[in-house]
Write a structure and sequence with these properties.
The termini are far apart. The longest helix is centred in the last third of the chain and has 26 residues. The chain has 107 residues and is mainly alpha-helical. 71% of the residues lie in helices and 0% in strands.
Length: 107
């Protein structure tokens, strides 16, 4: 917990390298995965999610970026094919919503 908190603080301070190095020191996979997920959130960098070893936790981390930050470049990195399809569908929906909003603003 203490290492994760320190890693989160490092990520917020913009020191992603230190944050990831701290997470890597955690021996228990589940602890390291939680650490990487929190660092990804704190640094707002979805690439950190790719360090998560457990597939479902990694996918959850990546989907958070698609859902809350509209960063759909994460879709291709999802392991679960159903989540991947949903991610691409959501991307298409958001693009259509943006086009419609532009059309309504222009008329």
């Amino acid at each position: 917990e203490e290492v994760t908190t320190e890693a989160e603080a490092a990520a917020r301070a913009g020191n992603d390298e230190r944050a990831n190095a701290l997470c890597a020191t955690l021996l228990k996979t589940s602890d390291a995965d939680i650490c990487y997920a929190r660092v990804a959130d704190a640094s707002e960098d979805w690439n950190t999610c790719k360090s998560i070893r457990e597939e479902s936790k990694r996918d959850t981390c990546l989907m958070d970026f698609a859902l809350s930050k509209n960063q759909f470049e994460v879709c291709e990195h999802l392991s679960n094919r159903y989540l991947k399809n949903s991610c691409f569908s959501l991307k298409t929906l958001r693009e259509l919503q943006a086009q419609r909003a532009q059309q309504e603003a222009g008329s």
